[in-house]
Each structure stands twice: as structure tokens, then as C-alpha cells.
């Protein structure tokens, strides 16, 4: 009797894991296709694919605990305790979470890409720079004088930004080739 129950759970687990792997492959393919169509660099594509993989693993752990007989009350107690601890910890580091969330939003809906020259309209510290890299927490902006500025993702979504020139890095490279001739 016990082996039949375990066998059923293992078959269900196998089917579920196979389904999750297919969902993961489809989501990774879709994210990559959309990102390349929009000119998003490979580092950002890998980052979002990691987020999707982690989310699927967490969902898998939750569903598998039900498959192997965990009760909702037991899981509710565990999750409420874990989320209380995480909530207290994340309250202390809310700005990091804000930047990661902004990075995800910027991945899917951001009109600028690496190489564009932008102007950030900040009253205290206006910036005109070329986007050199877009990371999970911040953007790397290269100023005209060559300085590198890291700018938090959450501020990028809060401030007004003007596109000065598309593909400014490409144009700089072309200008350098013309000067060398």
C-alpha cells in the first residue's frame, strides 16, 4: 500500500517536473526572442531568465509539498513565519528591492537601450550621458568627460529622461574611424 502511494507521488512528480521544464524552456525562448527584437543585451536577458527559473523552482517546491502530503495549515504556518522574517529583513533593504523591481520593469518596458545618449532631468544633479550597461540594480552611464556614473534603476523610473541620440556609442566609433583616416 505504501509503495503504491509513493509510486503515484513519484509519477506525479516526474510529470510535474517535465511540465515545469517545458514551461521554463518556452518562457526562456519567448523572453530571449522579445529581448533580441527590442535590442536588449545578453546580460539582461540572462538576468530575467534567472528570475523566471527561481520563480518556477519556488512554485515547484510549493506544489511538490502538496503532492507528498503536506497540509495547507502546515505550509501556511511555515510561509507566514518565513515571510515575517523576510519582510523585516526586506524593510531594512527596501531600496535594493526597489532597484531590482525597477530593473525587471525596465527589462520589459524601457524605451532606451545600451548605447543611447540620454539626459536625466534631475534638479540637483542633471546628467547627460551614454548608457553603457543596464544591470539588476543600476545603470552605468558614461559622461562626456569619461567619468562612469552608476544611477539607481528606481530613480531612472522616477525622473524625466530625454533621448538625446540613439546608438551614440556606434556613432562615436564611426567618428573615431573617420578621425584616424
From TrEMBL:
Gene3D superfamilies: 2.30.30.60. Residues 96-161 form the Mechanosensitive ion channel MscS domain. The keyword Transferase does not apply. Keywords: Membrane, Transmembrane, Transmembrane helix. Its main location: membrane. Pfam families: MS_channel_2nd. It is found in: Membrane. The chain crosses the membrane at residues 6-26, 47-69, 75-97. It comes from the Bacteria. This is Mechanosensitive ion channel domain-containing protein. It comes from Hwangdonia seohaensis.
Amino acid at each position: 500500500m505504501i509503495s503504491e502511494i509513493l509510486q503515484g507521488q513519484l509519477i506525479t512528480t516526474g510529470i510535474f517536473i517535465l511540465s515545469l521544464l517545458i514551461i521554463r524552456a518556452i518562457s526562456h525562448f519567448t523572453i530571449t526572442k522579445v529581448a533580441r527584437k527590442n535590442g536588449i543585451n545578453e546580460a539582461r536577458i540572462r538576468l530575467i531568465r534567472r528570475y523566471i527559473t527561481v520563480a518556477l523552482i519556488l512554485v515547484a517546491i510549493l506544489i511538490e509539498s502538496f503532492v507528498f502530503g503536506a497540509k495547507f495549515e502546515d505550509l501556511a504556518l511555515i510561509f507566514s513565519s518565513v515571510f515575517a522574517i523576510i519582510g523585516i529583513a526586506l524593510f531594512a533593504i527596501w531600496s535594493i528591492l526597489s532597484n531590482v523591481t525597477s530593473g525587471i520593469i525596465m527589462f520589459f518596458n524601457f524605451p532606451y537601450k545600451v548605447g543611447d545618449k540620454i539626459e536625466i532631468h534631475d534638479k540637483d544633479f542633471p546628467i547627460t550621458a551614454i548608457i553603457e550597461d543596464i544591470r539588476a540594480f543600476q545603470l552605468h552611464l558614461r559622461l562626456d568627460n569619461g567619468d562612469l556614473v552608476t544611477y539607481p534603476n528606481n530613480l531612472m523610473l522616477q525622473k524625466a529622461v530625454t533621448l538625446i541620440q540613439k546608438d551614440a556609442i556606434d556613432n562615436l566609433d564611426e567618428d573615431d574611424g573617420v578621425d584616424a583616416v
